[in-house]
Amino acid sequence: MTILTPHQKAALQFGSHISLTANAGSGKTFVLSRRYIEIVLKEGISLRNIAAITFTDKAASELYKKIALQIEERLSKVEDKTVEKKLENMRRQLVSANISTIHSFCIDILREYPVEAGLDANFSPIDEELSTELIELSVEETIKAAVQSSDDGESLRYLVRFFSSKNTLARELISLIKNRKNVLKLAGALYSADATKVAEFFKEKFEELVPKILLDQEDKILNTIFIVNDAVLKVKPDNAIALDIVRLIKNIEAAATNNKKLLIYEEIKNLISTQKGTLKKIGYTQKVYEDYIDEINFIEKFFENINYIELPDNSGEVELELAR
Questions:
Q1: Is there a contact between 300 and 279 (Cβ–Cβ < 8 Å)?
Q2: CA distances (Å), 132 to each of 101, 177, 181, 214, 262, in order?
Q3: CA-closest candidate to residue 121, choices 132, 129, 133, 113
Q4: d(CA 95, CA 86)
Q5: What would the mean pLDDT of 252-272 be, rounded to a whole number?
Q6: Once rounded to an integer, what is the mean pLDDT over residues 213-219?
Q7: Angle, helix 240-254 to helix 218-235, in steps of 10 degrees
Q8: Within its chain, how far is the Cα of 51 from the centroid?
Q9: What are the residues facing 100 on neighbouring strands?
Q10: Which candidate, 56, 57, 4, 48, places its Cα nearest to that of 28?
């Protein structure tokens, strides 16, 4: 017989509502199954009138299994005929007990009361895979209808050009639908403003988030670039790339704004990286590569992240067009 902790014993007192939090593996399912059985035995409630709701099908299956095992364990030891009868009745009813995910529980209610819910009694619930497929088909049909529409055709063609392809536009629309709660919130809070205000918001957010996202590691990246670059200069003091890097590191330290720093980092990246994003060996790190592999990997990862942040000369125009 499992010995219960004081907290587990308290959780079995079903005379009042409780909220229980516990770590994984601490026996939540075991206690819940015991609580379930105690309610039935002591209150004489039908299993049909108890709902045990879980988050996943796996958790529901585990709870069902634990309840069934505890019923069998108690039946093997019970001496009281009244309790034995209750347990046997419980075992019979367990097949139709409400032990399920919230999704399944709600479907069962809708199947039982389709008229009250305003549904066709033969409705079929959809899973996430089918839901995604229906959204994709809807977006595809909407784009197709817009292309053929005299009113929407030009706007649609503009969006396709803006996103570079119809498939990319479709992916963005699907993403918006899946995040519609946040999208609708933004629509009310931000996109109800005029394009100039929205563009200003983009700029402010960019300037606020770039330091948090990218430049948190500024001291480390500058130090790492310096270490690798210094090693190159020790092997070849007149290395043109390395000498340029010395100048650019000083420029970063003197830069007044994050935007200026980003432009200098971009310049460093173009000087020391190949088109594939790896640091150049020929003409730069070839003689020191093996000794500084960890530092080089860190620099490559940093510049890979920089690829996601672009600050073109016409950024103001771009922000305004994106806002429109």
A1: yes
A2: 21, 10, 17, 34, 38
A3: 113
A4: 15
A5: 85
A6: 73
A7: 150
A8: 30
A9: 53
A10: 4
Please say whether the beta carbons of 272 and 248 come within 8 A. no
Name the 3-class secondary structure at 314: coil
* Residue the block writes with tokens 């690829």: 307
- Chain segment 289-303, per-residue pLDDT in tens: 999 999 999 999 888
Q: Which residue has the tokens 């700029």?
A: 203
> DSSP string covering 107-173, please?
HHHHHHSHHHHT--TT-----HHHHHHHHHHHHHHHHHHHHH-TTTHHHHHHHHHHHSSHHHHHHHH
Closest CA to 287 of 205, 230, 248, 203: 230
Strand-pair partners of 53: 100
- Residue 60 identity: A
Q: Which residue has the tokens 């770590």?
A: 23
Tokens of 183: 């999208």
Confidence of residue 214 (pLDDT cuts 50, 70, 90): low
* DSSP for 45-78, written as a single string: --GGG-EEEESSHHHHHHHHHHHHHHHHHHHHH-
The DSSP code for 278 is S
pLDDT at 1 over 60: no
Average pLDDT over residues 149-172: 88
* pTM for this entry: 0.46
**Residue 302 has which token pair?**
């940093």
Measured N-to-C along each axis, helices 258-272 and 293-306 cross at an angle, to the nearest 10 degrees, of 130
Residue 215 has pLDDT above 70, yes or no: no
